[in-house]
Amino acid sequence: MQNPIGEADLEWILHRNCEGTEQLQEFYFFRKGIPMKIGFDNEKYLSMQSAHIRERIDQFGDKLYLEFGGKLFDDFHASRVLPGFAPDSKLRMLMQLADYAEIVIVISAADIEKNKVRGDLGITYDVDVLRLRDEFINRGLYVGSVVITQYAGQISADQFKARLEKKNIKVYLHYPIDGYPSNVPLIVSENGYGKNDYIETSRPLVVITAPGPGSGKMATCLSQLYHDNLRGIKAGYAKFETFPIWNIPLKHPINLAYEAATADLNDVNMIDPFHLEAYGETAVNYNRDIEIFPVLSAIFEGIYGECPYKSPTDMGVNMAGNCIVDDEACREASNMEIIRRYYAALNKAARTDTGQTEVYKIELLMKQAKITTDDRKVTVAAKERAEQLGVPTAAVELPDGVIVTSKTTDFLGASAALLLNALKHLAGISHETRLIKPEAIEPIQELKVKYLGGKNPRLHTDEVLIALTLAASSDANAKAALEHLPMLKGCQVHTSVMLSEVDIKIFKKLGMELTSEPIQTSKKVY
Hints:
The protein has 22 helices and twelve strands. By secondary structure, it is of the alpha/beta class. The strands form three sheets. Strands 4-3-2-5-1-6 form a six-stranded parallel beta sheet, sandwiched between helices. The chain has a four-stranded mixed beta sheet with strand order 10-9-11-12, sandwiched between helices. A two-stranded antiparallel ribbon has the order 7-8. Helix 15 (about 325-350) runs antiparallel to helix 16 and helix 20 (about 460-470) crosses helix 21. The longest helix has 26 residues, at about 325-350. It is elongated and about 75 Å long. The protein starts with 9 loop residues before the first helix and ends in a 10-residue tail after the last strand.
């Protein structure tokens, strides 16, 4: 048995911050002599990106409104397709500009009214506004205000505004404009942007962000340009969107993975025709920015008399493409992401009978990338084992490349068994060794069935981890296995059947990349 990394309990492990977990993983890779696949230079990115934004501020003079697309932190999609990209890279980059920047958070009144929920966090957009504000402030960033867009007297928006103002948060209202975005004469007038509240800002870089897409970030930026121009303030607009990456090929797996991630939004990557015409150079953008550019250009002309940009690509400030250091590693990671997105779409279609269009779209992307589900090793391993045994199975690819499998037993579901089998391998414990004795499992099963009215006596992933934690107090093997739990972060997992929400959440908390066959089983089986 190898020496454990350090003392830890279950709660500590599941809630480790990303930096701490990465340090443990680096130590494990070093000890095993396994080369880490790094395709992206994160430090170069932080330096180059912040410098480029400073240059864009200088280009316009007094002020730059920077529309932040995507996630400012917890950008796990970027970290999956660009190995080496830290999930909070954009936030860390912004922290380098903390003395220059203030943040304005935008939320649509329509989203407040319908209680729109963030799919990744499971919280409503209005709650996320408060979460984002606290996160920014805790990182030392200045949050100036909140803007409620598309305000048309919604009671829920009024209540949210009052709630914010009780916390001494400045709130501004922006209103719908008839004919937006095509009615440029009305938009660029006192009855268009002129009706909106003017957002008082005090710093040269104003970052406009939101809980999710469709919140009105771009319109907020343009409204400010209109008001600033009336006040004699020289202001500019730029957009920071990580994907698609403009200076790599259109059909590069990184860009295809972005299309897969946004299949539900009908986003399509395209060659920017305006950029090609202006400069004779190929650049990649996506359909919504390309389609809206003529309107944006007309709005800029209405405000300034001319448009400072010749193409939608010109508006961007993304430097990610310049920081790819291993193209092959990024291609491989992106192909795996496309396959994961495909399985997510299949599972959604199986559960809800909706989203079949997403499935078809990602199938086309897979053909363009020349990949199939068989290119993912764990997918093949789990399906082959299920065919051999005729029971639900699971497979995980560990950091050393070893594939570990599991099956459903009388005591454990396949997912719970997989965690134990994987931890045994990582800790150098014999597969035959029992980390949790049957006599410790049986009382839990009795509790589930006899007292809690459950039908399935098998332990789920959360229950097996709790049982392992209890065993670790008196068993050295269980303790060593538990302490290797952080090593599972980033590991690929596939199951031969769809999982319960409990198991899905545990895999997500562990940072494991889970996919499942779109096969539903009865509650008695799984």
